[in-house]
């Protein structure tokens, strides 16, 4: 499947734009995006809705989808449920030969209503595999999963990969996509779909140290409390942080997340991850900076990649420090 410059509007609001993507046989792709963006993208790729502009070229119509809110027939047992779909799919082999692969042997005669969320997700995955799909589109399959549930789901996904099924996952969490995908993209509503450059840690660690149980020395997330939950952000997700009335706010695209940390505390933690205090009220992720503009002799402004409307001030006293950091 190939997507070329795909754009989609909903109620005169642009949900997706600049989507360029090629999905090949057996590939496992992850896209970091919001739930709304995910819902629209999956419907576009499945042919349930048409793009407002751009092209989607499909070499197969054997495509299945799974949204987070999709349900199963709760009153049926796992056996009865999958037997029904075996007949619909025309699947020739016994389903019981696969229940071990999907770790469902213990609940084969159990009503679906009695299953855990982890088990229901594996039942759904097995149901889709009966149709021998060439492409599966799945929305955030590991959210709220247990540790064991994640391990068993990853094992089940291998079955699809071994049968040359391409799988595309969407999620709001990069960590989830890292477990599921070999190629990861991030959707930015200003600049479209961008491929995330992931380094292979095994290639970076010397062979004689790889087995020494070494642990990462710099693991850090910025937390934000909202109602009854705490949300954690990886430094690379953050565009910049601003301080207004002594309240620090994380900025990711158009979204705002307050944090209890002061700007000084954040600067100390995030400098190691490429953040720079461009102004006393702003801490910017230098990886997101695309332009430095001088509007006058003493006035400098930083423009962020894909977001020209955001203009961060750069103090004259900080200019030379920034020159040294990024060597320009």
Q: Brief description of this entry?
A:
By secondary structure, the chain is of the alpha+beta class.
Which helices and strands occur, and which strands form pairs?
Layout: E1 2-10, E2 13-22, E3 28-32, H1 35-45, E4 53-57, E5 63-66, H2 78-89, H3 117-129, E6 135-139, H4 147-162, E7 166-171, H5 174-180, E8 183-188, E9 192-195, H6 201-204, H7 207-210, E10 222-226, E11 229-233, E12 240-244, E13 247-252, E14 255-259, H8 263-270, E15 275-279, E16 282-285, E17 289-296, E18 299-304, E19 307-314, H9 316-326
Parallel strand pairs: 3-7, 3-8, 5-6, 6-7
Antiparallel strand pairs: 1-2, 1-4, 8-9, 10-11, 12-13, 12-16, 13-14, 15-16, 17-18, 18-19
Helix pairs in contact: 3-4
Count of DSSP strands: 19
Reported for the largest beta sheet, the result is:
6 strands, mixed
Return the structural class. alpha+beta
Strand percent estimate: 25-35%
* Mean residue pLDDT: 85
Gross geometry: elongated
Rg (CA only): 23 Å
**Cα distance, first to last residue?**
41 Å
| DSSP summary: helix tally | 9
Physical arrangement of strands within the biggest beta sheet: 5-6-7-3-8-9
Helix content: 25-40%
Return the string of H and E elements: EEEHEEHHEHEHEEHHEEEEEHEEEEEH
Low-confidence stretches: 199-216
GO molecular function: ATP binding; ATP hydrolysis activity; DNA binding; phosphorelay response regulator activity
Protein name: LytTR family transcriptional regulator DNA-binding domain-containing protein
Domain ABC transporter: 1-214
Organism: Alkalicoccus halolimnae
């Amino acid at each position: 499947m190939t997507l070329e410059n795909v754009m989609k509007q909903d109620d005169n609001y642009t949900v997706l734009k600049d989507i360029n993507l090629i999905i090949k046989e057996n590939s496992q792709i992850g896209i970091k995006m919001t739930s709304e963006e995910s819902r629209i993208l999956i419907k576009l790729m499945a042919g349930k809705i048409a793009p407002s502009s751009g092209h989607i070229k499909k070499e197969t119509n054997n495509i299945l989808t799974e949204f987070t809110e999709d349900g199963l027939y709760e009153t049926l047992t796992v056996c009865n449920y999958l037997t029904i779909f075996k007949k619909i799919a025309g699947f020739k082999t016994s389903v019981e030969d696969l229940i071990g692969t999907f770790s469902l042997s213990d609940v084969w005669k159990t009503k679906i209503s009695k299953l855990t969320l982890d088990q229901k997700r594996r039942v759904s995955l097995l149901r889709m595999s009966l149709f021998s799909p060439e492409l599966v589109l799945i929305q955030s399959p590991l959210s709220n999963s247990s540790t064991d549930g994640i391990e068993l789901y990853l094992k089940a996904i291998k079955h699809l990969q071994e049968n040359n099924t391409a799988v595309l996952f969407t999620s709001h969490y990069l960590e989830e996509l890292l477990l599921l995908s070999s190629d990861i993209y991030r959707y930015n509503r200003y600049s479209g779909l961008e491929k995330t450059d992931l380094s292979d840690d095994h290639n970076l660690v010397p062979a004689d140290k790889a087995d020494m149980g070494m642990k990462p020395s710099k693991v850090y997330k910025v937390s934000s409390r909202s109602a009854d939950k705490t949300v954690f952000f990886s430094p690379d997700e953050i565009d910049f942080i601003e301080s207004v009335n002594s309240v620090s706010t994380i900025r990711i695209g158009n979204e705002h997340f307050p944090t209890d940390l002061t700007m000084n505390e954040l600067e100390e933690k995030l400098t190691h991850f490429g953040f720079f205090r461009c102004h006393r009220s702003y801490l910017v992720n230098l990886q997101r900076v695309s332009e430095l503009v001088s509007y006058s002799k003493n006035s400098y402004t930083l423009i962020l990649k894909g977001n020209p409307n955001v203009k961060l001030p750069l103090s004259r006293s900080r200019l030379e420090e920034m020159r040294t950091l990024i060597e320009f």
